[in-house]
Automatic annotation (TrEMBL):
It catalyses: Thiol-dependent hydrolysis of ester, thioester, amide, peptide and isopeptide bonds formed by the C-terminal Gly of ubiquitin (a 76-residue protein attached to proteins as an intracellular targeting signal). This is Ubiquitin carboxyl-terminal hydrolase 39. Residues 138-235 form the UBP-type domain. The U4/U6-U5 tri-snRNP complex is a building block of the precatalytic spliceosome (spliceosome B complex). Component of the U4/U6-U5 tri-snRNP complex composed of the U4, U6 and U5 snRNAs and at least PRPF3, PRPF4, PRPF6, PRPF8, PRPF31, SNRNP200, TXNL4A, SNRNP40, SNRPB, SNRPD1, SNRPD2, SNRPD3, SNRPE, SNRPF, SNRPG, DDX23, CD2BP2, PPIH, SNU13, EFTUD2, SART1 and USP39, plus LSM2, LSM3, LSM4, LSM5, LSM6, LSM7 and LSM8. Gene3D superfamilies: Cysteine proteinases. It holds the Pfam family UCH. The lineage of its organism: Eukaryota, Metazoa, Chordata, Craniata, Vertebrata. Residues 1-133 are annotated as: Disordered. InterPro entries: Papain-like_cys_pep_sf, Peptidase_C19_UCH, Ub_carboxyl-term_hydrolase, USP, USP39, Znf_UBP.
């Protein structure tokens, strides 16, 4: 109730008290005055009640909005409307100055237009995914905690807790292996408990910081192209130094690190647990060493090419289809396409073709094992012997002539042929001398005057025994100090007579060219 209404009510009460001792005229006048004042007081009280209810409704509406001051009601700065309950009178909508006689008001907040509200910031890094825009990746403060003295990556890639080989990370602070990098993974728990932050994914070779879980990007850890091949050179060099070290503590050397490098660099084409083909491995190994040492196919040379690489001329002539008539063949042979061409090529080893093995048995019902001299299969490179090579569409005649002989010459005797069903082995025995193999007649005439030393001596012979897929290898090696031959098979080393070497199924041979002083000693 307002102060004005209170004053009017008090005035009416005083009038009633003063008019009580008068006559009838005054009594009737006071009665009319008191009735009028009573009506005016009731009107004032109604107005005060309405104003109080209006103020209470405003406060309730402001409290229900939950926001700060704004236009109209306090609804967090957004536009709002007051809705009158049905039966309260008046219009359907009323503003802040709605009449007091209306029913209880209900606040309805209008929907804010989309795009005006600020989006919630997303985390820069989610577990399992890396955000390339995270600035922490290039400014990791934990790189100085890496302890190189405890790192050893020769162990099997297994988690030290779960023994799982899937998604394994190496802690670069303590050297242990853990699985995963999620919130509940062993690597994450290890990083939280011991404050070890830098981890390496052993599969992708990427670096991560845990528990923040962002990839570390630094120019110092970028892998240069071809660095895997450098590992092959390093491991092979270490193995050679161990073999020829006169102060070794043990008489044997383990090639395990070298074999691991071969598996890695060959992308598991050659594995420790599976026997592969000796010629395929030799070809890949020599070319891989040459590339890792910085050599190229044409210009730059390395120690590998200086020792094993020779050169030859290849003469090629295209043949017409055998089903064509003789006249068409004669016409085609006049075309330039069917004329003989010559190209210069290099080689790391020479492939010697064996004659076809006989299919019939002898009188004792046993298979005949043919024998062929070494010089017969070397006739392929005399520049005159032609051999036909067939493809799916065309046939060619080729002949080869040597132009340069390397210091160490490798012969690969082709014993295995593949057909549509299986791999077949040729058991033909090659008869060859151990020393004094002269290859001068296989050189061109202009090259023979340049090459003064063309005599070679055998220093190693690799033999394949058994079936193509289930066979084993033996190696015959010459000891230069004593002139004796030794046979090596796995860990077994035995003496062998030179005459027995020629009776084996030779697969790969390494010949060493005699120098002038050695030739003079042999002649004396």
């Amino acid at each position: 109730m307002s102060s004005r209404g209170k004053r009017d009510r008090d005035r009416d009460r005083e009038r009633e008290r003063g008019g009580g001792g008068g006559g009838s005229g005054s009594g009737s006048g006071s009665a009319r005055g008191s009735a009028r004042s009573r009506r005016e007081g009731e009107g004032e009280r109604g107005r005060g009640r309405r104003e109080a209810e209006r103020g209470r409704d405003k406060r309730e509406a402001a409290e229900s909005g939950g926001g700060g001051p704004g236009p109209g009601l306090g609804l967090g700065g957004g536009p709002a409307r007051l809705k009158k309950e049905p039966g309260g009178g008046g219009g359907a909508w009323a503003g802040p100055a709605a009449g007091a006689g209306s029913g209880p008001l209900r606040v309805k907040r209008e929907r804010e237009p989309e795009g005006e509200s600020d989006p919630e910031p997303e985390p820069a890094v989610r577990y399992g995914r890396f955000d390339p825009e995270d600035q922490r990746s290039r400014h990791c403060p934990y790189l100085d905690t890496i302890n190189k003295s405890v790192l050893d990556f020769d162990f099997e890639k297994l988690c030290s807790i779960s023994l799982s080989h899937i998604n394994v990370y190496a802690c670069l602070v303590c050297g242990k292996y853990f699985q995963g990098r999620g919130l509940k993974s062993h690597a994450y728990i290890h990083s939280v408990q011991l404050s070890h932050h830098v981890f390496l994914n052993l599969h992708t070779l990427k670096f991560y910081c845990l528990p923040d879980n962002y990839e570390i990007i630094d120019s110092s850890i970028k892998r240069p192209p071809g660095d895997i091949m450098f590992l092959l050179v390093q491991r092979f060099g270490e193995l050679m130094r161990k073999l020829w070290n006169p102060r070794n503590f043990k008489a044997h050397v383990s090639p395990h690190e070298m074999l691991q490098a071969v598996v890695l660099c060959s992308k598991k084409n050659f594995q420790i647990t599976k026997q592969g083909d000796g010629v395929d491995f030799l070809s890949w190994f020599l070319n891989a060493l040459h590339s890792a040492l910085g050599g190229t196919k044409k210009k730059k040379k390395t120690i590998v090419t200086d020792v094993f690489q020779g050169s030859m001329r290849i003469f090629t002539k295209k043949l017409p289809h055998p089903d064509l008539p003789a006249e068409e063949k004669a016409q085609l042979l006049q075309n330039a396409e069917y004329q003989e061409t010559m190209v210069e090529s290099t080689f790391m080893y020479l492939t010697l073709d064996l004659p076809t093995a006989p299919l019939y048995k002898d009188e004792k019902e046993q298979l005949i094992i043919p024998q062929v001299p070494l010089f017969s299969i070397l006739a392929k490179f005399n520049g005159a012997t032609e051999k036909e090579y067939k493809t799916y569409k065309e046939n060619f005649l080729k002949r080869f002539q040597l132009t340069r002989l390397p210091p160490y010459l490798i012969f690969c005797i082709k014993r295995f042929t593949k057909n549509n069903f299986f791999v077949e082995k040729n058991p033909t025995i090659v008869n060859f001398p151990i020393t004094n193999v002269d290859l001068r007649e296989y050189l061109s005439e202009e090259v023979q005057a340049v090459h003064t030393n063309t005599t070679y001596d055998l220093i190693a012979n690799i033999v394949h025994d058994g079936k193509p897929s289930e066979g084993s290898y033996r190696i015959h090696v010459l000891h230069h100090g004593t002139g004796k031959w030794y046979e090596l098979q796995d860990l077994q080393v035995t003496d062998i007579l030179p005459q027995m070497i020629t009776l084996s199924e030779a697969y790969i041979q390494i010949w060493k060219r005699r120098e002038e002083d050695e030739t003079n000693q042999q002649g004396a």
